[in-house]
Specification:
The protein has 280 residues and is an alpha+beta fold. The chain is built from seven helices and nine strands; from the N terminus they run αααααββββββαβββα. The strands form two sheets. Strands 1, 4, 5, 6, 7, 8 and 9 form a seven-stranded mixed beta sheet that branches. A two-stranded antiparallel ribbon has the order 2-3. β5 and β6 form a beta hairpin. The structure holds iron/sulfur cluster.
Length: 280
């Protein structure tokens, strides 16, 4: 028998210490070992249907927002389908064996993909209807709708956080709201993401941001606005500095828990992964 073919890397990306992101921070604090495997050792990551679902919904929503909410529902469905097809193909190229995908529940990956595709169309329909009647409307900055709004946030101590905010909204009284669209089934446990966005918008624009919210696609509506007053510049700077230090001095202990069920690098988990790497 020949050697098994090497498994290609899911999202090849060089370790990047030049800046941090909210997702790096969350990944590191969820499980430092998983962070190391995915972002430093760059082991192959297992695909999951929910990544395809999330990417395709976000891309369709972004294009609809960029159309200033003028594009038809049919156009949104077409954008969604194009993105879904591309994302699915990428995932299937990386890992054709559905048995190696991360998957929850009794259904098969094939059936989950079919169900998610239909559910995503309903979620897009709800997003458009709810957004059109929302008193909060997209903020326009420099002539552009602030969708997938790119930011660079230099923190105290030298850590720079970069990212994209799904949408900035403006209320009837001129108040600004940061919004993140979630396509997962669970409400995010933390509001840290919104808090970092608040600081990023305030620093870049001089506008004040008091509240943020998650738009939960599964509910077809945004959750209640969350007050973000607890996220001040010095506190967030300290948290990212701690995370940054941990990465730099290679503090990567495993943190087994409920989240292991959706871990994309569990094959290589130092606790009990069948392909775990040799101990350092
Ligand atoms: S399986 Fe759990 S403990 Fe292991 S790397 Fe993944 S998240 Fe961490």
């Amino acid at each position: 028998m020949g050697q098994p073919a090497p498994v290609p890397v899911h999202h090849p990306a060089a370790p990047d210490d030049a800046h941090r992101s909210v997702s790096q921070y969350q990944s590191y604090t969820d499980c430092p070992a998983a962070y190391f495997l995915a972002r430093r050792a760059r082991v192959p990551q297992a695909p999951a249907a929910w990544f395809i679902h999330g990417s395709a919904v976000h891309e369709a929503v972004e294009k609809w927002e960029r159309s200033r909410r003028n594009a038809s529902l049919e156009a949104v469905y077409d954008w969604f389908d194009e993105s879904w097809t591309r994302e699915y193909q990428n995932a299937a190229d990386i890992e054709p064996d559905f048995g190696r995908w991360v998957h929850l529940g009794r259904s098969t990956v094939e059936r989950d993909l079919e169900a998610r595709y239909q559910r995503a169309l309903d979620q897009l329909t709800d997003y458009i209807h709810v957004s059109l009647s929302d008193p909060y409307q997209p903020l326009v900055l420099d002539g552009q709708v602030a969708v997938e709004w790119e930011f660079t946030l230099p923190l105290r101590g030298g850590v720079v956080v970069k990212g994209f905010i799904d949408l900035l909204l403006e209320g009837p009284a001129g108040d600004i709201l940061v919004q993140d669209l979630k396509t997962g089934s669970r409400k995010p446990a933390s509001t840290l993401q919104l808090g970092v966005y608040k600081l990023a918008v305030e620093q870049a624009t001089g506008l004040s941001v008091e509240y943020g919210r998650y738009f939960m696609a599964k509910d077809g509506q945004p959750g209640p606005p969350v007050h973000l007053g607890g996220y001040d510049f010095d506190r967030v700077s300290d948290w990212f500095a701690m995370m940054n230090r941990g990465v730099r001095i290679k503090v990567f202990p495993p943190r087994p828990g409920e989240h292991c069920r959706i871990c994309t690098v569990s094959r290589f988990c130092p606790v009990n992964g069948p392909d775990r790497l040799p101990a350092a």
